[in-house]
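Re: Re: ligand-bound prediction request (bumping)

Still looking for help on this. To restate: I need the protein modeled with NAI bound, output as structure tokens. Inputs repeated here so nobody has to scroll up.
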Amino acid sequence: MKVAVFSAEPYDRQFLEAANRAAAANYEWVYFETRLEVNTAPLASGFEVICAFVNDDLGGEVLQLLADGGTRLVALRSTGYNNVDLQAAANLGIKITRVADYSPYSVAEHAVGLMLMLNRKLYKAYNRVRDDNFALNGLLGFDLYNCTVGIIGTGRIGVILGQIMRGFGCQILGYDPYPSPKFQEIEGARYVELPKLYAQSDIISLHCPLTPANHYLIDAQAIAQMKPGVMLINTSRGPLIDTKSAIAGIKSGKIGYLGIDVYEDEEQLFFRDLSNTTIQDDTFQLLQSFPNVVITAHQAFFTRNALETIAQTTVANLQEFEQGSPLSNEVRPH
Ligand code: NAI
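Reply:
Sorry for the wait, this slipped through. Here it is.
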């Protein structure tokens, strides 16, 4: 079976082909480096199955074009599916699968990496030492020990983050509409309502999916409730934070540190080398200019372990579809 792979990078090829061999499967991957969007959807014409990633557009218009071209399955290589109009897919008879569970450690550990980068100003220290500047002025940090860490979304990733931060000796607060016994097993961890989490946390880390209900969860009103100098970490999805409000919070000093692996308009930027172009997104450029902001380009998932699982699960999802078996990783409209 031929599968059109969108947003295909060299590492996708490497891991998908290895997973094909390991499963003795015979999928013929046809790679498109381009992002899937209205203009590129015709490339999928004639492919019953396509494979897509986080910034591919799977809104109603694209799904209609895919359906017209004969697509019946979209196999996502991601956990999140906020980029898919699930109702439109169901109406068009297109099934959607995802990779529900791949190394939550990859994302949780990256969130910790951002915290340490910011807290100890490691990004500055690295450049200084390379420049033979061994002065410590301006690098003053603080201990994570005894800090209060507020985790919004205590699913697979949030729980691992709680466990790691407990290891640092932090106090752990959580907020989740669906409490998790695993979170409650973390020594001293407790659930609180959002206003309390905002008011008491020194560090706030977002680990909930993006839904219409929590778009701009972190807006001016939420930021106003936070501790002065709070550290905000987002490795989940960009639109959970209203970037303009975050910028206002940084300027006023309310937000002391911002570490993000996702950005609300990242589709136009991330996963590409734009080093020879002029970035047109002024908001992003302004964000980049602050000394207390660290941005990584949606790389939290990017470990060998996670890519292996993503590719293996994708192949397993295709096999279930091909055999007409129930799709264990299907996502349906809520
Ligand atoms: P999960 O489904 O195991 O956990 C998500 C948790 O968030 C659930 O417990 C759910 O009840 C909770 N939740 C839903 N709405 C909420 C809200 N408004 N406030 C607080 N909690 C809420 O998901 P998992 O695997 O932990 O992943 C979380 C998110 O991380 C994904 O949805 C995805 O957006 C993001 N992600 C980012 C990656 C990256 O490379 N930066 C890679 C993988 C996931």
